């Protein structure tokens, strides 16, 4: 099958997204509005009967003083990745983006390769011989993933640099932690928590922690805690206008696309988080907390309220987003993995990000420049 590809309207794109149970929040039209430094465009794949059968949000980042751009489809495109003729889907995309001046294309196929249950993650952390999740047997292995990776390589796609030792990619995370909500009651979901999680939720309730849903006007309170978190965990925080733009763009597309939650105790906001929703998939997006009064466990209370609301929305999965794939005690990110897996979440490995150099010289030069930054 060879598909026809062309630019589509936001409305066409959203109608297609509505037919899918799960599409990344980075593959909806409004995500382009969150990234003003990129030129966003919705692409559509049409079959022989002129039906829209695939879609993707591509972000184009122009190079200064050159009529060339990097094309990026984060966690996309949304196509039939199991198709026997995968080249028939990707070849038209490469041709189109080359005409648009792209010198390189980067994408993140939404293809799962392996899963480790919460119990398997716990066992891996306890195993002195294990350094990474891949050192222990996966609970589930997707047989088609390796075949898809092989097809991509034969087409000329290259696996992008996976980033640092902690398993986080330079683009989107390859490893995430997800809690299954589909077919489970809230009692069953809470029953999947480890003892520490259940104990902390009870502590927060007894201490009087109240989790409320906030709005645009509460973003400065969130951001204040977020900056404190960045200083504590040594990462560069995004500015407040980024989150204000994110809120405006996403909620204009769908009022429930983005939510803000705040955990209050004795008149003070101790923790806050953003939650994103597309179809049956809910993501914990950004989190923030203060070091003060940690003993009242606001973070567990916050996450439990978000999971309860996700369940009420009919979500099938609650996605904690990125985790490290290393399981060594001296890894500073291990605590984050423990926290997320403690909620009964399974570790999920995706196929990772892939690149196709349309202009090999320019692709290599820019990759070298970025690697030295």
TrEMBL record:
Protein name per Swiss-Prot or TrEMBL: Lipid II:glycine glycyltransferase FemX
Family under the similarity heading: Belongs to the FemABX family.
Tagged with keyword Translocase: no
Keywords for the protein's UniProt record, in alphabetical order: Acyltransferase, Cell shape, Cell wall biogenesis/degradation, Peptidoglycan synthesis, Transferase
Superkingdom of the organism of origin: Bacteria
PANTHER family referenced in this protein's UniProt entry, alphabetically: LIPID II:GLYCINE GLYCYLTRANSFERASE
Organism: Streptomyces viridiviolaceus
């Amino acid at each position: 099958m060879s598909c026809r590809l062309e630019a589509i309207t936001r409305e066409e794109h959203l109608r297609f997204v509505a037919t899918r149970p799960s599409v990344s929040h980075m593959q909806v039209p409004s995500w382009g509005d969150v990234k003003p430094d990129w030129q966003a465009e919705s692409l559509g794949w049409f079959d022989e009967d002129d039906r829209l059968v695939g879609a993707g949000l591509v972000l184009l980042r122009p190079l200064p003083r050159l009529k060339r751009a990097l094309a990026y489809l984060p966690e996309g495109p949304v196509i039939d990745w199991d198709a026997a003729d995968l080249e028939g889907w990707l070849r038209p995309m490469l041709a189109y983006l080359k005409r648009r001046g792209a010198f390189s294309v980067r994408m993140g196929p939404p293809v799962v390769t392996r899963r480790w249950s919460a119990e398997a993650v716990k066992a891996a952390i306890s195993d002195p011989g294990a350094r990474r999740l891949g050192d222990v047997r996966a609970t589930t292995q997707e047989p088609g993933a390796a075949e898809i990776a092989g097809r991509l390589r034969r087409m000329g796609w290259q696996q992008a640099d996976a980033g640092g030792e902690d398993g986080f990619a330079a683009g989107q995370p390859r490893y995430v932690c997800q809690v299954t909500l589909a077919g489970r009651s809230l009692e069953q979901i809470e029953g999947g928590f480890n003892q520490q999680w259940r104990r902390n939720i009870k502590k927060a309730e007894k201490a009087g922690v109240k989790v409320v849903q906030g709005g645009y006007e509460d973003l400065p309170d969130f951001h204040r805690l977020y900056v404190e978190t960045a200083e504590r965990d040594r990462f560069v925080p995004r500015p407040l206008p980024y989150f204000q733009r994110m809120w405006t763009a996403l909620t204009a597309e769908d009022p429930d696309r983005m939510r803000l939650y705040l955990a209050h105790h004795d008149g003070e906001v101790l923790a806050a988080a953003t939650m994103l929703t597309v179809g049956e998939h809910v993501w914990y997006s950004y989190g923030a907390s203060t070091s003060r009064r940690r003993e009242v466990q606001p973070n567990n209370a916050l996450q439990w309220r978000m999971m309860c609301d996700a369940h009420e929305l009919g979500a099938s999965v609650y996605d904690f987003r990125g985790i490290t794939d290393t399981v060594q005690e001296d890894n500073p990110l291990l605590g984050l993995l423990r926290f997320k897996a403690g909620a009964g979440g399974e570790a999920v490995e995706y196929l990772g990000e892939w690149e196709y150099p349309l202009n090999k010289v320019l692709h290599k030069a820019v990759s070298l420049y970025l690697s030295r930054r």
